[in-house]
Amino acid sequence: MLNNLDRIKDTSLHSLVVGAEEAASWIQHGMTLGLSGFTRSGDAKAVPLALVERAATESFKVNIFTGASVGSDIDKLLSEAGIVHKRLPFQADATMRKHINAGNHLFVDQHLSHTSELIRSGVLPTIDFAVVEAVSITADGMIIPTTSVGNSTTFVSQAKNIIIEINVEQSEMLEGLHDIYEPAAQGSRQPIPLMSAEERIGQIGIPFDASKVKGIVFTNYTDSPSPIVPPDEETEEMAQHLISFLRQEVSAGRLTNKLAPLQAGIGSVANAVLGGMINSEFEDLQVYSEVLQDSVFELIDAGKVNFASACSITLSQEMMDKVYGNLEEYRDKLVLRPQEITNHPEIIRRLGLISINTALEFDIYGNVNSTHVSGTKMMNGIGGSGDFARNSRIAIFVTKSIAKGGNISSIVPFVAHVDHTEHDVDVVVTEQGYADLRGLAPRERAELIIENCVHPMYKKQLRDYYEEALTRGGQTPHVLEKAFSFHANLAKNGTMLDKETALV
Ligand code: COA
Fold it and tell me: What is the pTM of this model?
């Protein structure tokens, strides 16, 4: 039964149940919506889809704020319907990407820990409607979120109006998995009292002001599974290089075989590289991340990971069936928190995380571009990679050394867009090897990166660039008129290869 009133335990709210179309009709041109959802999980689905339907006969635009990317093709449909004025803080949809890059709507690429602060402090527009997916509403007035928490806590506390989507497909067993804690405003805040990945510091649900609840919608849409990209030879080699680096840290006495809490970013590469740890000697591991992908559950199943904290669970269909079909087995090993807490600099620095994120490209000095293809076109967004890289104990970036069949070198003289500066990047890993950049001067970094990480196709070309740069001198030598020559070659010839100098 769709309208399962048993899931609204505060019976005084029963009269607020409405259909998605009616709820969507309250949303007006110029409003700002705070939608639940983080990397295809726990997203509000029925009201955004009803809003898209409304756009067939009516012209309007709204701002769409979320936790991160959303599933059910919602970003695609919102973009196609032409109803997005501004979108933030992250997306990962191919159609929305096209609309952003065509300038059809605005996109603010934001550190994922920042959105809540900017809403709370009034820098971003007030949220007119928070639309959040829930498992249920408790008798004492809390929203139990589903498979992600994202920014829902702040959306609910700051919005003028709240619409709750109770998803009857989401298991009531999710109750008790969440740990909801919202820091006070800046300037009157206490330290966040989280001392370890498995600790709980808040409540099991999101508190709300009942007078702001305008409607409750029942839905049964399932979360969108993430596409499975199995590990390949190169990601396995990258995992081996990462393990070699971590082994070096253990033999130097800086880490033990328990390592330190691990964070791994989105995407197939980070997932495969983390999964590669299954065959390592490391054990009794903890994960303190923003999203838990398949690899974390494979590591839990293998007895390698004993606890995982995040703000979202994003799985392939096969892993979803396994995890949600056996939630009892995993419950005591998991916690879901607001993204403001999972990505908080204070906690990341306190716990001393090892963070592993994916770069599109990095340069010979260690600056990283995670977001802009050829320096101008948005891919997905910075996500949490900046929150983690800047504050972790060891910030690691992984990428294959070449892309698009070798027409692109992921190591370039100068990145065409900077997300993570050389100051925030400790270790870079490709299938060729790794470069530990900590404590190295720029000239030492360039030598090591070219030697260890660059694909053989591009080694001579990068070395020639660097040697010419050395003749110009400087702390960070460059030939400025050639710093983007790789990208210029790509735009002109369809390949970064400079045919005369490359060793093929
Ligand atoms: N220039 C242009 N395109 C490149 C490239 C480069 N230097 N390097 C890779 N690509 C392309 C790949 O060819 C692939 O294209 P396709 O989709 O047409 O096949 C695409 O980028 C994705 O690359 P892939 O190697 O499959 O990696 P991924 O799925 O792991 O995604 C990122 C990599 C960088 C796009 C992704 O990790 C991301 O968006 N990161 C930023 C956010 C983040 O790090 N969040 C972390 C906290 S959760």
Answer: 0.97
